[in-house]
Amino acid sequence: MSKPLENKLALVTGSSRGIGAAIAARLAAEGAHVIVNYAASPARAEQVVSEIVSAGGHAEAVQADLSTVEGTKALASSVDKVFGGRFGGRLDILVNNAGTVEFGPFLESSESSYDRHFNLNVRSLIALTRDLAPRMIRAKWGRIINIGSCLGEAAPLPGVTLYVATKFAVRGFTRALSRELGATGVTVNNVQPGAIDTELSPDDDGPAAQMMKKLMSVGRFGRTEEIASAVAFIASPESAFINGESLTVDGGWNA
Ligand SMILES: NC(=O)c1ccc[n+]([C@@H]2O[C@H](COP(=O)([O-])OP(=O)(O)OC[C@H]3O[C@@H](n4cnc5c(N)ncnc54)[C@H](O)[C@@H]3O)[C@@H](O)[C@H]2O)c1
Predict the structure, then answer these.
(1) Cys staple from 212: which of 26, 36, 143, 195, with CB 3.0 to 4.6 Å?
(2) Does the beta carbon of 102 sit less than 6 angstroms from any atom of ligand 1?
(3) Domain-embedded: residue 100
(4) Which of 67, 170, 200, 212 to mutate to test the pocket of ligand 1 (most atoms within 8 A of CB)?
(5) CATH code: domain of residue 216
């Protein structure tokens, strides 16, 4: 029986670990050929690829540091250079997942922290989308899926003001672009995780983790696979009428 994403080419940014790795594995399980982008950890990216291949899927790792303009451009052109022949210049699914957060009081924040947050969470996501969307428009089919945050809609957690600003930007970009591309067959949506158990989340059960758990009515951190299943649905042909949406998967954080 054919799988829903058979013969589709998918790029998942920042997928050598965490939510991105789970999304890569899930899209591959649905039949997609997955480009596993990583910045600095080839061994972990190769591990993600080898687990996908062992499970019978298709994936390849591509290095690109998305905190820089050059790295973002290099990733867009590698889609043509490495995969253009095999996939006829198509890219069917783009998951803009790479992101970063730094905790601390806003009044002590630095210009370099602004750059780290905005270059990765916003600028590279926008530039990569601009460079890759034309392939989807030509094919009259595509899925652009941004990984925002429940903090892109409300800000009940102190100490993450810059991050909140970037994730509100992701939600606004998603909505505006969905209008521009709506008639082309390409949808643009935003999946907003709550606190998920990854290296980005607090690494102990200290006050920050306790506060996050209280915010989520289900009383626990989410699992990366729970975000991947929401992304897999948005990536599927069944979601064609969903456009400009922010799908919040947050254990009740924003209820
Ligand atoms: N973990 C959470 O609780 C949570 C909650 C809401 C939203 N998110 C969002 O989910 C996404 C993934 O986060 P995660 O929790 O898996 O975090 P993570 O730190 O485990 O993963 C982030 C990924 O981005 C990659 N990355 C970092 N800098 C990069 C760069 N310069 N170029 C390319 N890739 C780079 C990392 O290698 C990693 O694969 C992020 O956008 C994050 O904001 C996470």
Answers:
(1) 195
(2) no
(3) yes
(4) 200
(5) 3.40.50.720
CA 161 to chain centre: 20
| In a domain? residue 2 | no
Range(s) of the domain holding residue 115? 9-249
Q: Distance, CA 2 to ligand 1 centroid (Å)?
A: 31
Strands 9-12 and 93-96, how do they pair? parallel
Ligand 1 centre from 19 Cα, in Å? 7
CA distance 166 to 164: 5
Indicate the number of domains in the chain. Answer: 1
pLDDT of residue 203: 67
Tens digits of per-residue pLDDT, 98-148? 999 999 999 999 999 999 999 999 999 999 999 999 999 999 999 999 999
Which residue minimizes the CA distance to atom 37 of ligand 1?
14
Condensed to tens digits (0 to 9), the pLDDT of residues 48-95 reads: 999 999 999 999 999 999 999 999 999 999 998 888 889 999 999 999
Q: What is the largest CA-CA distance in the chain?
A: 57
- Please tell me if the CB atom of residue 195 comes closer than 6 angstroms to any atom of ligand 1: yes
